[in-house]
Structure formats: structure tokens, C-alpha cells
Design brief:
Elements (H helix, E strand, L loop, with lengths): L7 E10 L3 E9 L3 E6 L6 E4 H22 L1
Length: 71
């Protein structure tokens, strides 16, 4: 796997309805930052890759708990 050595930006297909409809821009920045901002805005919010992993894991566990509770 290649190491992250330069900034990579991508526009997601998620549409957020804050001050009108805007797409989320995701930025991967060395050494281990994930940045989020709305298109045509300047405010960025960052997570480390480890924190992003933990949040995704918690969301997955919560979704499994909810689906088991509905059955």
C-alpha cells in the first residue's frame, strides 16, 4: 500500500442541506488527517485517521444493535 505523501481532495456524492444544498469535500492530508468541509465554504473540520476508524466502528456496532433489536 502506498503511503500518503501529498494532499488528496475529492467531492463526495453526499448532499448536505445547510444554507442550501452543498456537497461534502473530503481531504486526506499527510501524515494522517482527514478533513471535511462543505463545497464553497472555508471552514474545515479534521479527524485523525485513528479517530475516524473508531467513529466508524462505533457507528457499525450501533447499527448492528439496532437491527438486532428490530428482529
Amino acid at each position: 500500500m502506498k503511503k500518503l505523501d501529498k494532499t488528496v481532495k475529492r467531492e463526495s456524492s453526499d448532499d448536505i442541506f445547510e444554507k442550501g444544498s452543498k456537497f461534502v469535500i473530503v481531504t486526506l492530508e499527510p501524515p494522517n488527517l482527514i478533513g471535511f468541509r462543505l463545497k464553497k465554504t472555508r471552514s474545515k473540520y479534521y479527524l485523525t485517521a485513528g479517530t475516524g476508524y473508531i467513529l466508524a466502528l462505533k457507528a457499525h456496532i450501533n447499527a448492528q444493535k439496532k437491527s438486532k433489536g428490530k428482529k
